[in-house]
């Protein structure tokens, strides 16, 4: 077995009974399991048997237009991952959480808890919550503007990092004889006083096994990429063609370098929705079965949200109407661009567009044999469009089971993927350094003043 | 075996390796387990073997003065209880969470998650967060005032209840053939627009097994008792004498009736710290071993916080200095009164006071044989000072193991406590109704307008 020096990373993006929007209607799924914690525990175990780096949950803070057709975020991700942590030992656990509608102290503490509970396997997908329906659940009449959301996110993460670093690694002494639980000189206030947050600290949790969770990011707008360049250690992204993937990869790595960081310290993980069959024809037929189950009324509502135009009365077999300019989109700018380009470049009708988006809401779908899928992933990896992949099984658990038992072994054969875990933490799997606790920024300023 | 028609309720209040402030220094504990999720999973299993109604975690949103001496709230309670839910089947799971520094949407959703994950065993201990150190972690220069905190708590719970009720029980249809996940007519916005919160809803989680978590409350000030009378289904309280316990019980039940509710719909659960021995002398000697491990410097800091006066330089063998009047206390008013009365009535020096408070921060300690402890609990129950107890083992897991294997069987013998679970949910254990989903208050207003 050949060993490539550079290996890639695989994250399992989990959602209900699968990413395909009609997954719950297909006989390969049991739709009742969307509400069953044991289902998610099994998924984590499947991912761990496949030696995957991590599992991941998206999240949103509104019921949204999914209520009627599908609801995917029944469980709050950190709470759910805690239940999955205790039935696994190695696989990383990445939760999405919003900087828009949380407080840094509370959220930093939750991730510290998850990192303690999982013995160092927590990751945080940092999102700014762009939905108008989310804003309405938190007192806002409209979505806070895009740039302001990223400003808040930056200060939020700064505070969270200071809180995670407010306990030195060796602060907890447990000195029974001397009666000293922790050394107070090694636990510091952070005294953060910024534009949006004022937080004294220290955190009410000792420093966690990873020091801090792995920081993940998934916005691909200009502000999103600059934010990622500064903070992210992994980036989830939707890229449809190799050329687009390469351009995004180059762009982001250059920004990381520009921010004074080692480009290897950020992993680019494009999404991929794999339909696996014994033959290519079988895989494509399976994909078609799912497409045929799509409910157009629901898809039109979802598409309307993506492009900022009400399409619910629009003819299915006509092309998209003219769309508003990018600067009018306050929600997810990068998804808007992806959808617009896809429709224009491939001259799609709305019905065709809906079919293409059904698999993974814009993420790339690949239907083929395990070999073909492995070839595709390797191509993106070799050509520097990806450091690994965000695997989005169209149906669950079957689609994840198939990927880990049929595609992963081929990647292992080729020396592209680990055959055993070599680390115990998510940082370790991703080859990331464990950050040293540092004196809070506010204290450092005071010390040099 | 006689069966009493009225039985009582037992909640295990869990904290680190025990409630006694020096527990972690005593040979009966392994102090390293404060950071070990498996320790807490075992505690839940011990409680379940003892057929207890529930386990419970307190919580605070600041490291507080405990850093040096002890830290008890390493884990965020909901996250931790999720990990405990999946290794148990019956025991209730009560988490403390603050109305002061959370948003109703986010918190309602977390409790819905825990209730789904545990199949109907979640409870919420509603606290307003009175600590100045907590306020400083959320942008406040001082603690928001006492009355305002309870006003916020009331509106917070109103919103949370509306969110839990925003999905009808039968909204989720999972109609695979028809392609309808949920019936949109059974999922409603709440359109709450109040003094402090504006929340559209619906919640992004289907109605949970219990409809809503059991609502628990633990403040015993005037505002606290009025809040409890309106909202709480169980109340944790610190009462030191039978007479005080009876007075509190009568007072609270009268307020519940005054609020138009059935007095049985609220369970009064005073705290009790049991030291168990083969003989009374052995139990008292054990208690003394713990008292001897108390670190006075730490206790003085904690006592200072309770009474609103800096006692860190105060002579240990003198009585308390004059204390500020009750209306100057913005934090925990009832604990202030308890400590003040205890010191005055028993003419205690500061050192003696610290010893009395060491077991459970003011809660009543009983040291004796299993029979004596059972007698004591039965007395409080028979004389209408309690509907059950908040059991606070001084050391863990041993103190809980001893209580469940030595005291519980006596209570069962006497027909005072269940020998098997007769329900699967926490509401069931407490004999509480499952609330019917109701139309959100805002909608009801609109409908009658
Ligand atoms: C794979 C992937 C997963 C995402 N998951 C979430 C999510 O769970 N919650 C969310 O609010 N946004 C999510 N997003 C959206 C982005 O995080 C970001 O909020 C959005 O793209 C808007 O930012 P942008 O305008 O910078 O692109 C996801 C995006 C991608 C590519
Ligand atoms: C058994 C018990 C447990 C409590 N747990 C907490 C807690 O976990 N967090 C908290 O902030 N307050 C806790 N408290 C305090 C009360 O909930 C309340 O916030 C405090 O008593 C102030 O309210 P009051 O002035 O109405 O008494 C607890 C009180 C009791 C009796």
TrEMBL record, chains A, B:
The keyword Oxidoreductase belongs to this UniProt entry's keyword annotation: yes
GO molecular function annotation: oxidoreductase activity
Alphabetically ordered keywords of this record: Flavoprotein, FMN, Monooxygenase, Oxidoreductase
Enzyme class per UniProt: oxidoreductase
EC number: 1.-.-.-
Domain Luciferase-like: 31-377
Keyword Oxidoreductase applies: yes
Pfam families per the UniProt record, alphabetical: Bac_luciferase
CDD domains: Nitrilotriacetate_monoxgenase
Family: Belongs to the NtaA/SnaA/DszA monooxygenase family.
Full protein name: LLM class flavin-dependent oxidoreductase
Lineage of the species this protein comes from: Bacteria, Bacillati, Actinomycetota, Actinomycetes, Mycobacteriales
